[in-house]
């Protein structure tokens, strides 16, 4: 919990302090990094606690059952967590605060902690810590009063200068980390959505960090809008779920003994299953109207739509086809940001959510998801292989890897997808930070054609990036095992898992063979482009460009994150699917819903697979994936390493394809033509209508009301004021005349009073008949 | 002695008190007139208590009148003192400040 709040605290502190500190100071960076370091230690500590408590839990002795909640409650460190406990999947769920309550429907803010959450906490804080430390150096040139932005297009003769924004950068980075941890921690879709938007917003800040550049402004706007498109789907999906299931909680709240309290509402998965079971038999009986009570007309299509809506959110956030174009443009942000936000964590949020809600997805939605993933995988890979910009290669590679993960979810292997997410986070942030190291030392040179032969000058960067590249392409030495482990880096294991998932799926459903072929093709392409990247950057001993002779490694703050990430990229998946990480992931995700039990689904006729099916084909799938990867690697080696085949000849042969891919398959053009331009036109016409029709009307209204008020002012002055003035002056005159009676002489008053009494008596005796009765 | 005699004395007291109030310019003289008037009223009450069915009530009332007269005298003397402090005179005809 504290780990979650610390980045936020860091962000707040920086925001406050930036007003007082000079722009030259590095203090904001140290605050941000320090808070992240503590957060990382805390999450590591809680992960350790989690692991330690887990055997005790399996022992299920009464003593440990009593002890472990206590430890966990201590770990949470939050006395307000009044409802903690276990589900069969070992999950810590609770509420902090009820945001709103509308009748039956409650929107609480709470948390759901399970193995996956702990794992993601460690992951996010670690990568964020690495990026924070790295940025201390990378962004050091922002610590100035007048930062000169050489990428800014400006009129000649004028040097663009602006104050540095070091503190700004760290504030945004801290905010982002906080939001990401919030997503991971949240229980309930609404809470996820809140942090989801916060992530989007901080990403917007970070992409548009160099907001003097037009490209950066456009890119941040594009990313924000593309995400909104997906979020519309998210909101729609949430609404449908809320209407049909009556809750947005992902997991039920337990009390300390593990019993759900009597009034606790059903969590989403159970409620959703109930809704499905209510609908599906009705379709079999062909009497849908009889079984559905009026006013609660849930149809099967609506439930599918809910899943699709949520998936639209994931697709937007994870930059999947057809909303993938924003991620490549997001590379306008500083490179450490790309490493943290646009490769490792933010885009992974989509996949994370997809895996969390996977039990809510009906077969149609999953199938669509699989195909979306495949299309994205191939598109991204093909774009990456022709991209000339260093960061662009990595961006497209991220897109395609995310496609692979969604494919994994689509074929039902969501443990494999999350597994790949984690390994991918390590090696992709490693690659980005390595790229940042190159960019930093070469003074913002990103063109692959101009770079090259940097190995001698950047030995550490080149070595760590080689590890990242191998992990990304999933290469391994076949048939060699050391200590019972196959000799491969993390990407090899996780990609294997997904490929075997896809293979098992295809074996059961032969008419979706396209999925498997595409995955293998994608693996081949991945190996090719990642090796191409490395060879272009580092192969050969001397730089191509004499201007690059002076490059050198950065200080330790830049290199150490690389080394740490390289270590994890290499070894975090040790043990493959039986390893620690994978087991933790598997332990936390929901079990497959009923329709995964192997039964043939009526609507799309798909046979779903389960873990044992996947395990059966694991060896074959691994071999195929490995073969594909080696094929790709060999191609890349032949093209760029040995130069056995001239790459120029090859690209000439494939001109149309290359041109298509290097224009990013014209998606931007398409969107511009079909969406952006019409909307701009619409906006222009609306503005015209505004000016021609509405503005005169409003002006007329204003003028009329002005005239009217003039008239009423005249009326006030001439009639009403005069009347009241006259009245007041007459009252005044009357009062003056009365004043003369008040002489101020007491004796006079007494005389008058006496005379008045005598007169009254006289009147009394004169008129009252009984008063005459004298003595 | 009959009721009429008491009432006659009371009336004389009342008239002289009233005359005193009306004619004296000295503030303390006015106060003495007030005392005379109060005492005439007191005498009336006692007389009615003695000769009619008013009984003990009249005497109690007379006690009240005496107490109130004492309080009034205290307040009035304080006013007179302040009056003298402000105007350096005790002539009531000079005190017409409020009129202005």
TrEMBL record, chain A:
Residues 102-143 form the NADH-Ubiquinone oxidoreductase (complex I) chain 5 N-terminal domain. GO terms for cellular component: endomembrane system; membrane. Keywords: Membrane, Transmembrane, Transmembrane helix. It is found in: Endomembrane system; Membrane. One of its GO terms (biological process) is electron transport coupled proton transport. It comes from the Bacteria. GO terms for molecular function: NADH dehydrogenase (ubiquinone) activity; NADH dehydrogenase activity. This is NADH-quinone oxidoreductase subunit L. Its main location: membrane. Pfam families: Proton_antipo_M, Proton_antipo_N. The keyword Membrane applies. Residues 186-505 form the NADH:quinone oxidoreductase/Mrp antiporter transmembrane domain.
UniProtKB/TrEMBL annotation, chain B:
This is NADH-quinone oxidoreductase subunit K. The keyword NAD applies. The keyword Membrane applies. Belongs to the complex I subunit 4L family. It is found in: Cell membrane; Membrane. Its main location: membrane. NDH-1 shuttles electrons from NADH, via FMN and iron-sulfur (Fe-S) centers, to quinones in the respiratory chain. The immediate electron acceptor for the enzyme in this species is believed to be ubiquinone. Couples the redox reaction to proton translocation (for every two electrons transferred, four hydrogen ions are translocated across the cytoplasmic membrane), and thus conserves the redox energy in a proton gradient. It catalyses: a quinone + NADH + 5 H(+)(in) = a quinol + NAD(+) + 4 H(+)(out). GO terms for biological process: ATP synthesis coupled electron transport. The chain crosses the membrane at residues 27-48, 60-84. GO terms for molecular function: NADH dehydrogenase (quinone) (non-electrogenic) activity; quinone binding. NDH-1 is composed of 14 different subunits. Subunits NuoA, H, J, K, L, M, N constitute the membrane sector of the complex. GO terms for cellular component: NADH dehydrogenase complex; plasma membrane. It is an enzyme of class 7 (translocase). Gene3D superfamilies: 1.10.287.3510.
């Amino acid at each position: 919990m504290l780990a979650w709040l610390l980045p936020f605290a860091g962000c707040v502190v920086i925001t406050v302090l930036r007003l007082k500190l000079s722009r030259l100071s590095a203090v904001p960076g140290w605050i941000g990094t320090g808070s992240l370091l503590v957060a990382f230690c805390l999450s590591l500590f809680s992960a350790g606690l989690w692991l330690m408590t887990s055997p005790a839990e399996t022992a299920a002795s009464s003593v440990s059952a009593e002890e472990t909640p206590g430890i966990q409650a201590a770990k949470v460190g939050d006395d307000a967590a009044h409802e903690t406990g276990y589900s069969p999947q070992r999950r810590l769920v609770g509420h902090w605060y009820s945001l709103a309550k509308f009748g039956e429907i409650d929107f609480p803010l709470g948390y759901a902690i399970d193995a996956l959450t702990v794992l993601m906490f460690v992951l996010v804080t670690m990568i964020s810590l690495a990026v924070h430390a790295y940025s201390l150096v990378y962004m050091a040139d922002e610590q100035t009063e007048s930062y000169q932005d050489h990428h800014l297009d400006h009129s000649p003769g004028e040097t663009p200068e602006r104050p540095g924004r070091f503190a700004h950068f760290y504030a945004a980075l801290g905010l982002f980390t906080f939001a990401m941890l919030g997503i991971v921690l949240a229980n309930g879709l609404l809470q996820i959505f809140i942090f989801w938007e916060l992530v989007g917003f901080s990403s917007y800040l970070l992409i548009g960090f160099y907001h003097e550049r037009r490209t950066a402004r456009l890119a941040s706007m594009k990313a924000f809008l593309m995400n909104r498109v997906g979020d519309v789907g998210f909101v729609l999906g949430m609404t449908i779920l809320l209407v049909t299931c009556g809750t947005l909680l992902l997991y039920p709240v337990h009390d300390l003994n593990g019993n759900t309290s009597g009034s606790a509402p059903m969590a989403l998965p159970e409620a959703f299953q109930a809704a499905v079971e209510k609908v599906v038999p009705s379709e079999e009986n062909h009497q849908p109207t009889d079984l559905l009570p009026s006013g609660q007309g849930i149809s099967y299509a609506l439930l599918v739509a809910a899943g699709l809506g949520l998936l639209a959110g994931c697709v937007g956030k994870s930059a999947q086809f057809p909303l993938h174009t924003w991620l490549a443009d997001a590379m306008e942000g500083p490179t450490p940001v790309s490493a943290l936000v646009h490769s490792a964590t933010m885009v992974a949020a989509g996949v994370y959510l997809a895996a969390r809600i996977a039990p809510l997805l009906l077969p149609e939605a999953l199938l669509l998801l699989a195909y979306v993933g495949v299309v994205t995988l191939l598109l991204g890979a093909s774009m990456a292989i022709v991209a000339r910009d260093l960061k662009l290669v990595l961006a497209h590679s991220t897109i395609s890897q995310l496609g692979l993960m969604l494919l994994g979810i689509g074929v039902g292997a969501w443990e494999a997808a999350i597994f790949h997410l984690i390994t991918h986070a390590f090696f992709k942030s490693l690659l980005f930070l390595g790229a940042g190291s190159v960019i930093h030392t070469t003074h913002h040179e990103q063109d692959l054609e101009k770079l090259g032969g940097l190995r001698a000058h950047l030995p550490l960067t080149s070595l760590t990036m080689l590890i990242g590249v191998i992990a990304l392409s999933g290469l391994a030495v076949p048939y060699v095992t050391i200590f019972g482990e196959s000799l491969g880096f993390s990407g090899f294991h996780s990609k294997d898992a997904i490929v075997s998932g896809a293979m098992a799926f295809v074996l059961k459903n032969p008419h979706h063979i396209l999925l498997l072929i595409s995955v293998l093709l994608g693996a081949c392409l991945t190996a090719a482009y990642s090796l191409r990247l490395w060879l272009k950057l580092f192969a050969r001993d001397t730089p191509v460009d004499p201007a690059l002779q002076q490059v050198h490694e950065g200080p330790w703050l830049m290199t150490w994150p690389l080394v740490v990430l390289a270590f994890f990229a290499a070894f975090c998946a040790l043990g493959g699917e039986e390893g620690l990480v994978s087991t933790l992931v598997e332990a936390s995700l929901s079990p497959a819903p009923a329709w995964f039990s192997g039964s043939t689904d009526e609507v799309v006729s798909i046979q779903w697979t389960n873990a044992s099916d996947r395990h059966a084909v694991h060896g074959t799938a691994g071999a195929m994936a490995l073969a594909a990867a080696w094929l790709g690697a060999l191609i890349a080696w032949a093209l760029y390493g040995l130069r056995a085949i001239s790459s120029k000849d090859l690209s000439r042969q494939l001109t149309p394809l290359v041109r298509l891919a290097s224009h990013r398959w014209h998606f931007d053009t398409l969107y511009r033509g079909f969406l952006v331009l019409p909307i701009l036109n619409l906006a222009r016409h609306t503005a015209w209508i505004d000016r021609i029709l509405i503005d005169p009307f409003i002006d007329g209204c204003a003028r009329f009301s002005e005239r009217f008020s003039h008239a009423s002012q005249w009326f006030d002055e001439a009639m009403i004021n005069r009347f009241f003035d006259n009245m007041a002056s007459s009252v005044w005159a009357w009062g003056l005349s009365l004043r003369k009676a008040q002489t101020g002489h007491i004796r006079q008053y007494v005389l008058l009073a006496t005379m008045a009494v005598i007169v009254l008596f006289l009147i009394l005796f004169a008129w009252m008949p009984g008063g005459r009765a004298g003595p | 002695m009959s009721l009429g005699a008491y009432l006659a004395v009371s009336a004389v007291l009342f008239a002289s008190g009233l005359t005193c109030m009306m004619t004296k310019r000295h503030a303390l003289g006015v106060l003495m007139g007030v005392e005379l008037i109060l005492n005439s009223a007191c005498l009336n009450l006692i007389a009615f208590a003695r000769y009619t069915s008013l009984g003990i009530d009249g005497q109690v009332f007379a006690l009240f009148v005496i107490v109130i007269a004492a309080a009034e005298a205290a307040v009035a003397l304080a006013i007179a003192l302040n009056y003298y402090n402000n105007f350096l005179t005790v002539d009531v005809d000079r005190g017409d400040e409020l009129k202005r």
